[in-house]
Design a protein that fits this description.
Blueprint (H helix, E strand, L loop, with lengths): L19 E5 L26 H12 L7 E5 L9 H10 L4 E3 L9 H10 L2 E2 L10 H14 L4 H4 L4 H12 L17 E2 L2 E5 L5 E2 L16 H7 L1 H6 L7 H5 L10 H8 L19 H16 L11
Parallel strand pairs: 1-2, 1-6, 2-3, 3-4, 5-6
Antiparallel strand pairs: 6-7
Length: 310
């Protein structure tokens, strides 16, 4: 096995500290996108965390310790909040890295972007996979097959749709061969390195998983993340059911807990949209060696610095 990492693991102990905290600062937004997770509405909700409560939330994030989790302000449309730049500056002062995930509304102007940048923010504009946890499985499979000199298309049984999508991506200049080397996918899942705080302060393992574990108005975020039954349960891969529970990739994939809950009402059920049959990958010994080495590398605190392309 070569030393290039197929996936990135979080530097910190995921039971102690999340990698990222997403705050739904408001659901107000002039758009009405059918796909919107926030179920956006035209006006701000009077139950939203006000400026004082938002400042307290930032202090709660800082309480996880340094380096603090990345704090992403989203919406709705975060520019609907007049205190946005104030909160960004306060986060920076408390040692919290702040980013803004804006909506494509008329409020997204060069002037406002300059203001939030000057206040100390980074912008999350690049597209990313959110509920495609199986991408980490695919990255591991691709690495094992590449090391073995195998054709991943043949071994994984990829069909005409894959070829059409790959050809179309090449036409658009999106194929991996034309892109710069990129970082491997990060091992994050609902409740495992990820926290979502709603506009009213309710804490969820994910913005797509509508199960609350408490409120930051009543209980510290550190306590909810570290000790609530929902969060500790979702971090235990042995609690997964069905195919996910039997899968050799369960500790690096785990499937979408949101889709599992949405279809079955059980957040620990198997991922309903995954077509992988546990144990069907032909290079099990090589995979086990890769997973074991990856775990040891993560525990040594040395992972996460190598960028690869597929």
């Amino acid at each position: 096995m070569s030393g290039v990492r197929a996936i990135r693991r979080q530097h910190q102990n995921v039971a102690d500290k999340p990698f990222i905290v997403i705050w739904e600062s408001t659901r107000a937004c002039p758009l009405a996108c059918p796909h919107c997770r926030a179920e956006a509405v035209p006006d701000r909700d009077p139950r939203e965390l006000d400026t004082a409560a938002a400042r307290d939330l930032l202090r709660q994030v800082a309480a996880f310790g340094q380096p603090a989790p990345l704090f992403v302000i989203t919406g709705g449309d975060p520019f609907q909040r007049s205190d946005l730049t104030e909160l960004i500056a306060y986060g920076k002062a408390t040692g919290v890295r702040v980013a803004v995930s804006p909506s494509g509304t008329p409020t997204l102007t060069p002037g406002r972007l300059r203001n939030v940048h000057e206040a100390g923010v980074g912008l999350t504009v690049p597209a990313k996979t959110t509920e495609a946890h199986h991408f980490r499985r695919v990255a591991l499979q691709r690495k094992v097959l590449a090391d073995a000199g195998e054709d991943h298309i043949e071994v994984l049984g990829l069909g005409p749709l894959y070829r059409r999508l790959r050809d179309r991506a090449a036409e658009l200049g999106l194929d991996a061969g034309r892109r710069r080397a990129r970082r491997p996918p990060l091992d994050v899942n609902a409740g495992r390195g990820f926290v979502f705080v709603s506009h009213t302060g309710t804490v969820h393992p994910s913005g797509f998983l509508p199960l609350g574990a408490g409120s930051v108005r009543e209980r510290p975020l550190t306590e909810i993340y570290r000790a609530s039954e929902l969060f500790t349960g979702l971090r235990d891969a042995d609690r997964l059911g069905g195919r996910c529970g039997r899968c050799e990739f369960r500790r690096v994939c785990g499937g979408s807990r949101s889709r599992a809950y949405g279809i079955t009402g059980d957040p620990y059920a198997e991922e309903p949209w995954c077509g992988y049959r546990p144990g069907s990958f032909p290079y099990q010994r090589e995979l086990a060696a890769l997973l074991t080495g990856d775990m040891r590398h993560a525990e040594s605190g040395a992972m996460g610095t190598v960028e690869v392309s597929e």
